Task: structure prediction
Amino acid sequence: MSKSISVSYSNTGPLHLRRGFGTHLIDEAGIQYLDTRNNVAHVGHCHPEIVSAITYQTQMLQTNTRYVHPHSSLLASKLVELMPRNSELKVVFFVNSGSEANDLALRLARAHVRQRRKLSTTGSADGNRNEFVITVDHAYHGHTISTLDVSPYKHRQGTEIDNCPNHVRMVPCPDVYRGEHATRHRMKRQRQQWHRESDMEAAKQYASYVERECESITSDGDVVSAFLMEGGMSVAGVILPPQTYLRRCIDAVHKAGGLYIADEVQTGFGRLGKCMWAFQYTYDDNNNPDCNNGDVETEMNEIIPDIVTVGKPFGNGMPLAAVITTPTIANAFESLGVEYFNTFAGSPVCCAAGLAMLHVLTSERLQENALHVGNFLLNSFRELQLRCEYIGDVRGSGLFIGVELVRDKVTLEPATEETSFVCSMLKEKFKILTSVDGAHDNVIVIKPPMVFSIEDATLFLSCFEKALVIELPTAKDDLGNLGRTPT
Amino acid sequence: MSKSISVSYSNTGPLHLRRGFGTHLIDEAGIQYLDTRNNVAHVGHCHPEIVSAITYQTQMLQTNTRYVHPHSSLLASKLVELMPRNSELKVVFFVNSGSEANDLALRLARAHVRQRRKLSTTGSADGNRNEFVITVDHAYHGHTISTLDVSPYKHRQGTEIDNCPNHVRMVPCPDVYRGEHATRHRMKRQRQQWHRESDMEAAKQYASYVERECESITSDGDVVSAFLMEGGMSVAGVILPPQTYLRRCIDAVHKAGGLYIADEVQTGFGRLGKCMWAFQYTYDDNNNPDCNNGDVETEMNEIIPDIVTVGKPFGNGMPLAAVITTPTIANAFESLGVEYFNTFAGSPVCCAAGLAMLHVLTSERLQENALHVGNFLLNSFRELQLRCEYIGDVRGSGLFIGVELVRDKVTLEPATEETSFVCSMLKEKFKILTSVDGAHDNVIVIKPPMVFSIEDATLFLSCFEKALVIELPTAKDDLGNLGRTPT
Result:
């Protein structure tokens, strides 16, 4: 296998995993690990209901969407039911991966903007020159050629794409801890109080980049085809944009004739606890659990994407992803006369896994669990932050949490090697698997299976504290030899 | 679900399938259909060994390639073993679909050509302007934005892409029955004797387009990044290029510094009976079964691709595909420093399905079965051709056969409506599922599960003859009302 496919913990010994159940993974030596990072096994590793759904359907029939099967239509309708109530998000395309989903979303946006503008549709690179996609710095949207173009995270990782491609405009990541418009709020955030006014101000500043791109593109006679963003940015290190940022961006993009594509591949299906989708996330002072499906914001302010993409957790590990859009956008695509066929997508077996995942999510009330355990984790990390020099920021919602480690809470110097050490220590000594992300590889990203319990969280917190407060100071001299843990 | 996702037999009543086994599918009313078209359920629908492998592994562990699992390394090495013995095709990337495989193959070719030419790597549309991919008319290589660009079949289907994109050069389909350089051979082919000299002449003529494109591109100071072709073109209507065509094309492309990407998504894993991969196919007068792995041609003439993509049959229905390339090309990609991570690809469950598929393929000697039953079908169709006015051409190899229906064996006027009628009749009256493809929707493409038996073939042939010789003439007046069967 190619060396481009990186293996976790390759510095201290890769994991040879053999079994999984719930929040645990077991290696070939029988050692059991607590999993704080796998957001694909959404309702837990090898959940019996998922296993049984796949087993049954694999015996019965595995075929494609050229034939009608109740699993695909049922799953499509269940997906539509999960969309915001006021939306027209009613048309579903099944695909195999988040990358395929975002790739198709870009095709849909292109079809929409062309129908709207009655542009000539040469489909060529030159013909597309005047259609722009706006993407956010440090975002990752997939590994296909088209989705790489809109993934600044990958542009920064190597030299495959040195500069932002010509048809893509990149705006700064709306990071209120470390970004350009975060400085003024830093002290307030360190005291861990959400401050509505300063957050709103940051939102305004960050959104102004999108507004300016829209103006600049349209004033040149060109068109904005889409603004593509994760409601909660994952590889950027758990960045939830400040309140009103999305609203402002979407308004600007809509005004310019473009679409808002909400990438929910990492964050969808209740991970944030408070809401089913990250684009619905709203800040509040007391973590009100009732803000689901936009109830908290007025209808006028409710965020409604034009296209939503889902993936990773959808099939609990089975390759299953989807694009949900409106009849208007689907019609624009259909009117081009090109059949959409995807061999494996929407097959009865993958859809059986998706249906079982959604059933367990509801029957075991895992969104509530994510909120409950997530709040416990957030509060505990914030308490730890007060007595630990390294914890610069604790952020997120539900079971989507980022703990950013810094060497200095004023300069915010990233504690990259320390973060890598803590993760290696957690794996080696405490048998806990974690994930590192963020622009400086210094954010521990907690995104475990949604069955992560208070007991799991308690164990994790206690080991994390030991690694950070006891192990790290005694090992500081050797840090240089450890290298970084691939995320 | 979007109306762009077309359903088979929507004119006469879509199929609501519920079960599958071997070469049979059963609908919700319990009606059993013979399946002559599903090349994904390679070793048969719901093969017990595949079911059992998936069931076991789903219970044990489903995770990603950041951890080491013996299934993925074993499957990668088995795939490498199936490559031509003299090749350096030793590096594997797992992906989820044929589309993802061809998309990644294009990335690899881009990395290779840039390393070779030390080009600046802007990755932008404009920066790519001088890197060309050569593709064949009527080819289909996938539904992602990059693979659509190289799929003339889709360019012709609608208005999403009106012209061949600027970075793509299209050459004519090497069709020796209907293409530009087929006329002189028509009478000989109608007598169904393969004629080495005329075929070689056609190969020379068709390959000259590729040679000329290579010359034109390089003489402008631009570069050829890849020549992408299926060894057996499927949606083009079972086009096996004439002898020496591939050799000539590859030589020209290599001379220009480009790579040959062999798309084996439809034809791989022994479907052609005589060989494991379609790019290895060689014509011979007596269907010699020993020409596997290039033994028949001298080593000098053996076709060795630079990149091979596989998909559809690989997981027998589970989403599983792969790209196989050489260390040199993989190194060029790796040296760009971009990690390749694909969430679902190469997971233990999908690899378990792939391993089981390969085991059944060998243990049940299905490649031999494909050759045996394929020869029986080819000979029987050719016999039928002599007494049936509609059968213009019978072509293919193993269980990859095209039967082209025409209204006139001299003008070759396509019998499009008649083909649609025959397929509808086969489904409605005889409970046999078929597939229609080709530029004029008049080629019945036979690509059943590889367990298709002589008994299945006998039943199919007898029903096909009845539909064509008895039903079609009596229904000719109503043909206009039938519409076309989506393929």
In short: The first strand of chain A starts at residue 17 and ends at 21. Residues 30 and 109 of chain A are 49 Å apart (CA to CA).
